[in-house]
Amino acid sequence: MKNYAWPWELRRNGVLNMNKRNIDYIGKYNQRKFYKRVDDKLITKQLALANDIAVPDLIGVVEEQHKINEIPQMVLGRTGFVIKPAKGSGGKGILVITHVENGRYYKPNGDEVTPNEVYRHVSNILSGLFSLGGIPDVGLVEGLIEFDPIFDGFSYEGVPDIRLIVFKGYPVMGMLRCSTAASDGKANLHQGAVGVGLDIATGKSLYAVQFDKPVLRHPDTNYELSQIQVPNWDVLLHTASSAYEMCELGYLGTDMVLDKVRGPLLLELNARPGLAIQTANGKGILDRLKHVESLKGPTLSVEERVAYAKKHFCSNPNF
Amino acid sequence: MHSRKPFFIFVALLFISGISASIYRSVEHNVPFFPGKQVQSWSVEAKVMFNGTSKPAEASLSLPQDPAFDVLAENATSAGYGLNISEGEDRRAVWSIREASGRQSLYYRVTLVPTGQLKVDADEEPVTPEPFLWQVTERGAAEQIINQVWERSASNISYAQQLMDVINDSNQSQNLALLLSVNSRTQLFVQMLQSKGVPAKLVSGLMLEDQRRRQQLNPYVQVYQDGEWILFDVENNKQGRPDNLVLWQHNGMSVLDVIGGSNSQVNFSMLKETRSALATSIDMMMNTDSLDFSLYQLPLEEQSTFKGILLIPIGVLVVVFLRVIIGIKTSGTFMPVLIALAFIQTTLLTGLIGFLLIVAFGLMIRSYLSQLNLLLISRISAVIIVVIFIIGLFTLISYKLGLSEGLTITFFPMIILAWTIERMSILWEEEGPKSVFMSGGGSLFVATLAYLAMSNSWIQHWVFNFLGIHLVILAMVLVMGQYTGYRLTELKRFKPLAEDK
Description:
The complex is a heterodimer of chains A (319) and B (501).
Chain A: H1 7-12, H2 18-29, H3 35-39, H4 41-50, E1 58-62, H5 71-74, E2 81-85, E3 95-97, E4 99-101, E5 104-106, E6 112-113, H6 115-127, E7 139-143, E8 161-167, E9 170-178, E10 194-198, E11 205-210, E12 213-214, H7 233-247, E13 251-259, E14 263-270, H8 276-281, H9 286-293, H10 302-312
Antiparallel strand pairs in A: 1-7, 2-3, 2-7, 4-5, 5-6, 8-9, 8-13, 9-10, 10-11, 11-12, 13-14
Helix pairs in contact in A: 7-10
Chain B: H1 5-29, E1 38-62, E2 69-77, E3 82-86, E4 92-114, E5 120-121, H2 136-151, H3 156-167, H4 174-182, H5 185-195, E6 200-207, E7 212-215, E8 218-225, E9 228-233, E10 238-239, E11 245-249, E12 256-259, E13 261-276, H6 277-288, H7 300-309, H8 312-326, H9 335-346, H10 348-369, H11 376-400, H12 414-431, H13 433-454, H14 457-465, H15 468-480, H16 488-493
Antiparallel strand pairs in B: 1-4, 1-12, 1-13, 2-4, 3-4, 5-9, 6-8, 6-11, 7-13, 8-9, 9-10
Pfam family, one (chain B): Transglut_i_TM
Keywords (chain B): Membrane, Transmembrane, Transmembrane helix
Transmembrane segments (chain B): 308-326, 338-364, 376-396, 403-421, 436-454, 466-486
């Protein structure tokens, strides 16, 4: 039993589990009819623009097979771009080109991507290989995010992104996801990215894990993770909180990045955010969810909700 | 959030109706709960013999009608004879022939299954019999005994009991000796009962004993009391019926009538048999047309199809359990169930080897296809065709090598295999071989468990014979759909969060 926890130990610490998340939170607070607002990144983008939420540039949309050949035209003159499926899930099917030289494309790790590979990748996207249920999809070509140099050293071969869980409009828990060599530049914790728990009140780091084990330094850059202070924290909280009005999903995961020039950008929304954020914070999320559930009274504005969350969901570093 | 009460009431109803339907099937139709259960049955042969007189002949034999035994199968054979079995109150087999000469032998065979229902209920109140008219020489003696016994009794049964004791008394009175000199004990018993207006009738019964031949029917008496006919064996001074006694004729009719023949007799031989309880109950249901809701009504081919289909809920239940309660990840939600179905045809080891071979070869071919820049739909189609080639190749090779197990590889669902190969190939490209082995291993593990559950002979027996089980499975799946507790794998995953803060 050394490797296993007793269920009551987890319950005492308010650890939310998959079945309960699905039934009591996603099933209860996320209406099926609003899913497409987050599952289709094209719709998310349009909604965000309508709500004055900043998002990465949309260079173009590839809806049909023959339009794949227009991609070089679209990205002409850019130093990098990203191709992603509109209905992808779990970060699947995202192709990041960070370097363009003489019409040749290079991934963040320096590997060249041949036009053939790009063609096949987009063709797979259109066929629905990365979408939920395999339904036909469209490919989005987005501008590359020029990530804020303040994050130099946080992350290896990728942009660190900020995940906030927004429950009924209140940001309840946050983490910074930093890609590593092990995660191949991806920000998914189960692939080996470092998850850094963030204090809702300040945006300071609280705790950090890789592969569910606590870490003090980034494994590739050796950056001290306890020193992280996410800039523009209030803007991030406001953006995340206002995403609730935008998509009307009660239990929501928001993924944001910090652009050097444009500040916080909303990357995508997630109607089924994962549970790893608890491990990254070293803390169960259930108590905070119940706290928000117990709130009575009229619906508060975004500012009021952010202020409330900053007041009630602060924690102390746990390194 | 609406209340969960109606949901739980619904689930409880499903559960209860499933269980009660199964119990009904077991009790009412004697479908055994366990496969391989044996029941005793009796094979009885009645041989009718008479001397023909070169004239038209007709022999009519009474057939058994007894709630304690169900007729499972019966047939009557005799060359040259016409046969008619008349149904109704008095079941009889009637053989007829235009000309019978010499010694004639007619056979009636019946398979009887004990039902345990030893009580004989009277359908209606029997009429009070006319007092028996005694011979002048016997009347005085008879009335003296009857009146003595009547004084000492309170009911039909106690009167019959006392009477049987008196008739079998070793210190016979002179009166009794006189009566027994002209009547058999059984006859005398019936006559004395009827003299006091007690409904009683003479019946013929056959004692069943294994491997007996040339047995005769014995006379017994049924006495009416409170809606029930109670059996008395006067010759042996016994009341009540043993469970190996068949009432062959109990309507007061003759056992055998022969017209146009002489010197007729009937004797019986019998054999105890052991047969499958399930086959017996199916045959019984066939006989009585009570296959009200049974798949045995279907043609054999559809039956065997359903035997496979009805295992799917079991496989699904295993998958739901392993995913919701244990938390094992599989590639494709119900792919393991389909693989497990194939394992049932191939057996486990052959199936596992075959599956791994096909998927491994498929992945190799798929890696070549991925260089061709095909559309997803045509790539999958190409993989399906290649999978068929692989299956054909392996079948041929194993046939040439004389490995008959290899031939069953054709039972694998090809489309599912093609999708599995496609998914695993993508997984390999995206997350590396480790994820492929994890997800493939998880799927095979789930498929193996589902196979073990589905190939269990008890489970196969239950899902096909007790359709109510499927309501129970449905209820269990619904309840698990409401389970909000931790999965077993989450107890490990969240172990770091279990420490006291």
